[in-house]
Fold this sequence. Notes:
globular; alpha+beta; six-stranded antiparallel beta barrel; 15 helices
Amino acid sequence: MRIKEEWKKSGYFWLPHSEDKKIPGTLSILDGGKIELEVVGLFDESIEALNGNDDLSRIIGHIEKDGLVTLEDCFYKTKNIAFGGISKSLVYVRKVISGVAYEQDEKAIFNTVSFTVEGINEWVGITGINVVHSDDFKTATISYDPQEELIYNLRSGFKLHIFFGYTLPGCGDTTEARITHQTYFKLSSEVARDFSEFSKIVHQVTYLLCFALDSTVTISDVCATCNDITIEISEGNIRPANIKLYYQSLPFSEDLPNLDKHKMLFRFSDIRENAEQVFNKWLSTYSIIRPSIGLYFSAVSGDHKYLDGKFLALAQGLETYHRRTSTETLMDVAEFRSMVASLLWNCPKSRRKWLKGRVLYGNEINLGQRIKRVINPYKSYIGNSKQRTKFVRSVVNTRNYLTHYSEELEKDSAKASELWVLCQKMEAVFQLHLLQQLEFKESDIQRILSNNYKLKQKLDEI
């Protein structure tokens, strides 16, 4: 997750069952969500703890400005023991729940989790800010109309909300009037759930934004509420307390995304009429082709420092995609099993285990056939028959060389600019298939190709 400003706060920390033993420390959250707690001393100085039997599954703290915090899934990264002096130890923390202190065995469950994603304002494209200039542009009238929340039912039992936060100028004399507008996602559940159930959907929705924006974007400003944890806002009026959450999430890029509406594959306005269907289709598709989606995003997010690694991720991703979406085999399954049984029966007993391992996946089509099937729906975008054959052969030869590094394959593998072109085309084919999975019509894909120069450029590379 994105941490926009330095987050480092001092306080006192203790174990839930040892509130009388509080030790000073400093809690730090780095950009990306990495969390560290530096403490003076140790939480437990018993013989068992000194021998490594520490239970730091939950730590409670009271820090400056934020008040009570609960630190989840903790363990010592470095443990220093002082013999008469002062020592500092470093604790790794997986998640910070800010604003509440849970008991040792109390479950941290929530009814809502809200978050924003880089680029969500541009992607949704809905704003309540209106600016009207006079004819001579010497005066302007600025107004704000609060936007209605959009709510979609997910098949998982959650509801996905798109809502809009805003701030208005204060009253009185001023030399500056400022209106801010921010778009957020919110997941809600009538039944309180563990955060892991929320974070799974948050992760998948974020990757949908990455795909739509064609850029690696990161979440920030994660807040939760639980109907059982409330605060009094006025006499007799209560509301669920806002609980801030910090954790290390993917996707994440150290560099801020450079967003351009002309580079986006699609915007919210393109799916607004059937947004609920698209959101649910993405979540169901993600569960089926999750490994291939993971490989695709690892390739396009810059995780691979070298082009070889990006190519291998895309090649494996396309192969896995076809494997997850097709049951095609070389021959009828019953016929293949009969043939294997006959081979094993006639094979010497001492070699049957070896032979079984050799023929176990013998009915699967090879990489070349899978790549050919994958590009077939979009073959007109790859070129003529000769160009498509060259593309498939180049993908297979390069994958085989980079996997086995056989000298015989080196001369037929793509290198330098040719390898880069292969990656561009494979990436574009992946994007076209994911659009198809979201049930974009052929006319919609044609429109995207005509309006999105980045995608068109990937396919036009020679």
